[in-house]
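[Automated response] Your request has been received and processed.

Submitted sequence:
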Amino acid sequence: MGQWTFTGGRQLTEAGIRPLTELNVSMDGAGDQRIRLGEHIIAVPGLVDLHAHIDRGSEDSVGIPWEWLRKSGVHHAADGGTYGWGSWDSEPLHSSESIRWWVSLLPEGLKTFPQAPRLRKVVPDMADPAAHAFHMPRHFVGFKIRLGQNDREDDEDLLQIGLLWSHHFHVPLMVHWTGTFLSTELVASSLRSGDVLTHIYAPLTDGETLETRVRALGRARAQQVVLDLGHGRHHFSWKVFAAAHAAGLDPDTISTDVTRSTWQQDPVVDLPHVLGRCLAGGMPVEAAVKAASLTPAAYLRLAKEHASWVFLGMQTAPRALPDALGEVLTVPVFWSPVLIIMKEVMRLIDHPDLKWQGAPGV
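Generated structure:
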């Protein structure tokens, strides 16, 4: 095992982005190296994805293998309801200690995706959580509901029973509100401190305006609800992002909602790419980087990370960034990883701000 010593550049810490004096990282399968970072490089202690979809070993899963996420610089992630409470014990169990689980309120989770059964049709007595045998899985975070799938009545059931179950089991609720048949202000005002509102910049619903969306997000933040990006293929609008950003409503956490069909595909790609999109849209660098690393790590109560590092740098090439509605933001500079270390090198890009003393040894 070798040691790589980094000097120069900057480093994300709990106190913010600060000048990096020296950083020593133990490396499997590599010799000792010294690397001088350019002034714009930021060393980040690994990324955390609060809302991804991860394969537990099911052949029909929409999730991706954990190793794929790891190669993108993600050292911990939370699955966003791929699996349901009613089928949890029958599913193959992923053994990684790096995964946390939001469990779907639908008993079968996303097995029937893109179809979504009505909640009361599959389990008529959901209003009595004590009547159901649910054994909390290891690393259980909370419950997840997906509004906007059937009609207003189903959305009302999902929200009411989701709040009931999360209260009964003393866990938070994650709410997908894209396309909800309820008013977004009603959804936001129903949530409690510690709950998570995901897909916050989804395209506007019928009858909704930018003003009502911003008001809903403001209400959620006032109630200490976590505002989660949950980018996904269909859940991000540049117009909504811009209006919320202008109102000071940037995301608390930056997540991907990545699936097999969106991995390495625009507009999602992976978590570093989604982070770069937020920076391209004008989010302050320190706030954005924290929202993809330290903030979700604190929410999930993770131990401090010392073995995983993502080194972000600016790529000076035009980049076209589409949203769910086909609107494209084109930027001249885009932030992306120049080096990813997860005990060993996962990604290395030839970049002028990485100055090696000798060969990189990989």
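Summary generated for your ticket: The radius of gyration is 21 Å. The chain has a mean pLDDT of 90.
If you did not submit this request, please reply to this message.
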